[in-house]
Write a structure and sequence with these properties.
The chain is of the alpha/beta class. It is 42% helix and 23% strand. It contains seven helices and eight strands; from the N terminus they run βββαββααβααβαβα. A hairpin with a 5-residue loop joins strand 1 and strand 2. The longest helix has 44 residues. Magnesium ion (MG) binds next to helix 1.
């Protein structure tokens, strides 16, 4: 018996009529990721951000508000980051409305403290609660937040244990990292890539949810129409 298998449209024939299947190369999933970097005075927000962007540690960064754009291709995805880095002095001077604008703009947050500065650590909990109150209130899903203990290289001056950092992140349902922006690029990469993955999951889940919600809406509308027709 001879089986005839129909050729798909993407299949072409070579001169000697051998079918060649063209395997389409997968296009990477592209996604914009807006990140706001927050935290206390001189904890290394700019150092961490610049380390991720340039792989370098410069040492001094000044007190400038900066918005950076950076592309990261990883595991079949392409993330286009927009990273907003705020000096702590400016955050204190801001009125509530600009803070709210930033919170609404962001897809994810990097909250930095210094492991040598307990006050910078204790100030994080209210910040996370403020973000969650603004973003997770009206039926919105969990907003991705990474809590980062920086200056890990200064272990002789440590004032916050890794365990405390991990527990705080766990209690607030956030990701946790301990890094040294001064010593290595890898930690900074883990922080931003990890956050981008969480943002990606959240956006895809939202899309799926909206799709299902709109199907449910149309089906209910059809049934509602049928009910009124038969009355
Ligand atoms: N030893 C060490 N020093 C660091 C590290 N990260 C940053 N620093 C230093 O800490 C100081 C403050 O770093 P910045 O990145 O400017 O801190 P910031 O949080 O951006 O500060 P503001 O923008 O003023 O709020 C600088 O002198 C950095 O060189 C680190 O991982 N280890
Ligand atoms: Mg800074």
């Amino acid at each position: 018996m001879v089986l005839r298998i129909p050729l798909r449209r993407s299949t072409s024939l070579t001169p000697d009529h051998q079918p060649v299947v063209e395997v389409p190369t997968p296009t990477p999933l592209k996604m914009d990721v807006n990140v706001v970097v927050l935290g206390g005075d001189s904890v290394g927000k700019s150092a961490l951000t610049v380390r991720f962007l340039t792989r370098r540690f410069i040492g001094e960064y000044g007190e400038m508000e900066s918005l950076y754009t950076h592309t990261l291709a990883a595991e079949g995805k392409e993330f286009l980051f927009h990273i907003w880095d705020f000096p702590c002095s400016q955050l204190r001077a801001d009125d509530g409305s600009s803070e709210d604008k930033r919170i609404q703009w962001a897809d994810g947050f990097v909250l930095v403290y210094s492991i040598c500065d307990r006050a910078s650590f204790t100030s994080l909990q209210p910040k996370v609660q403020c973000i969650k109150a603004a973003r997770e209130g009206a039926g919105q899903d969990k907003v991705p937040i990474a809590i980062v203990g920086n200056k890990r290289d200064l272990h002789h001056r440590r004032a916050v244990s890794s365990e405390e950092g991990r527990l705080l992140a766990l209690s607030l349902d956030c990701e946790f990292y301990e890094v040294s922006a001064a010593e290595a690029y890898h930690g900074a990469l883990m922080v931003f890539h990890g956050l981008a993955e969480r943002v990606c999951e959240a956006k895809l889940a939202l899309k799926k949810g909206t799709g299902i919600r709109s199907i449910v809406k149309s089906v209910s509308a059809v049934f509602a129409r049928k009910r009124t027709d038969s009355m």
